[in-house]
Design a protein that fits this description.
alpha/beta, N-(1-d-carboxylethyl)-l-norvaline Dehydrogenase, domain 2, 17 helices, binds nicotinamide-adenine-dinucleotide
Length: 403
């Protein structure tokens, strides 16, 4: 399919930047929202991304004017009758998404593709409300979309191979690394990231270490930022919502820790609300330490180590490998391109890292953590199987990969 024109529905945090990414590739794009102010802010967001490039000498002011001319703000569906692909980026609520899908199905030409930028909701459920479920899939951008190289492409149960090829082609036009991921709650990156983030909050609420020290240790480990800085950037409410969806699907290992829920309750939602794990504006009446004390989850025998967080991530990546959520190299590529994962300066994903550390070391470490902190550390069956077969990683010539 040739894509001559695109649209983005929902001009919030993601929508404005996605419209910028599309226009940058040279495609005209309609940016639609129900709220005229949001449209204005979305277009302004795209402009500010371009302006930043101009200020840094990476593009000329004329190029910026030409690219901005490709973005058309809208509060109605006028102009959708020749749109080839729509990126839906409305709030993460199934009823809103379904209502938008029904509207889009009516106004788009037959055969046009609709993709959802949902973080964790079912693509198949959204597709089912339209008469074009073969032309619908997930296309999950990462925040900020103009910076992050990865997109996850998620086929629903009725999406055709041709549609996936069209979407991967579109993603490549946008100069993104597209990874096809089997539909499962959280898809790949958020699913693998969540147990890691949750574990950092357990360490904090149990009093094993403070946020600054944990962040510093994980940056030392190789991450571009620590888990609490990342959590504040993503939004504590967004993180807690994702954990609720994932706990319903995967059980207690994804359970949102009490501190996270408490923070949502008192409005400590991250950088956007001026305070989360850190304070970004005026000092609040209640300190984070006071909130932690209120939660009452302190555990004097709890210890923080980077391994405690990393083994949770590796374990979930192993489960994704076991379930065929994506190919093994794609699982690692997604974590590198989606989150900037590095260890000691080297780009490496969780499965290759596990091979390097030794799957037997990981397995024993997880068992030790089970005895200390409970069943959320239960090792993935594939780890037990590989260790039993002597495939323990680089040292033995075979683990998740061959050496
Ligand atoms: N924020 C992130 O970091 C992030 C990252 C990846 C994916 N996502 C996903 O992207 C989607 C959008 O997230 P966001 O953070 O940009 O949300 P947001 O709340 O910032 O923006 C949503 C926009 O949708 C508009 N809207 C609401 N109902 C609408 C309708 N019926 N038609 C048109 N517009 C409507 C709102 O006015 C708002 O401007 C969600 O599914 C979210 O899970 C978000």
């Amino acid at each position: 399919m040739y894509i001559f024109k695109a649209a983005v529905v929902g001009a919030g945090t993601m929508g404005g930047a996605i419209a910028q990414v599309i226009s940058y590739s040279g495609l005209p794009v309609v940016l639609k929202d129900i709220d005229a102010k949001a449209v204005e802010a979305g277009v302004e967001h795209a402009r500010s991304i371009y302006q930043d490039r101009v200020d840094k000498g990476k593009m000329s002011a004329t190029d910026m004017t030409n690219k901005m001319a490709l973005i058309e703000g809208a509060t109605t569906y006028d102009g959708f009758d020749d749109v080839d692909i729509v990126v839906e980026a409305v709030p993460e609520k199934m009823e809103i998404k379904k209502a938008v899908f029904i509207e889009l199905d009516k106004v788009l030409p037959p055969g046009s593709v609709i993709v959802s930028n949902t973080s964790a909701l079912s693509i198949s459920e959204m597709a089912a409300v339209t008469g074009r479920s073969d032309r619908i899939a997930g296309l999950h951008f990462f925040n900020p979309p103009n910076v992050m190289k990865l997109v996850e492409v998620i086929p629903g149960t009725t999406t055709t191979t041709e549609t996936i090829e069209d979407i991967v082609g579109f993603a490549q036009t946008l100069r993104k690394i597209a990874i096809v991921v089997k539909e499962c709650p959280g898809f790949l990156v958020n699913r693998v990231l969540t147990p890691y983030l949750i574990e950092s909050v357990y360490c904090l609420q149990e009093g094993a270490a403070n946020a600054e020290d944990i962040d510093a240790a994980m940056v030392d480990y190789g991450w571009p930022m620590g888990p609490f800085t990342l959590g504040d950037f993503m939004g504590i409410d967004v993180g807690a919502d994702v954990a609720i969806t994932l706990e319903a699907a995967y059980g207690k290992r994804m359970q949102s820790p009490q501190l996270l829920n408490k923070m949502v309750e008192v409005g400590r939602l991250g950088a956007k609300s001026g305070m989360g794990f850190y304070v970004y504006g005026e000092e609040p009446e209640q300190s984070l330490d006071a909130l932690i004390e209120q939660v009452g989850a302190s555990n004097p025998s709890s210890r923080f180590s980077p391994e405690r967080l990393m083994y949770q991530m590796i374990n979930e990546a192993a489960r994704c490998a076991e379930e065929g959520v994506a190919s093994l190299p794609d699982i690692d590529t997604a974590m590198i391109a989606g989150l900037g994962m590095t260890v000691e300066g080297e780009r490496i994903g969780p499965l290759a890292l596990a091979d390097r550390l030794g799957l037997d070391t990981i397995l024993n470490g997880l068992k030790e953590f089970v005895s200390q902190y409970g069943p959320r550390f239960t090792p993935a069956a594939i780890l037990e199987q590989k260790v039993a077969a002597g495939e323990t990683g680089v040292a033995k010539g075979r683990g998740f990969f061959e050496y």
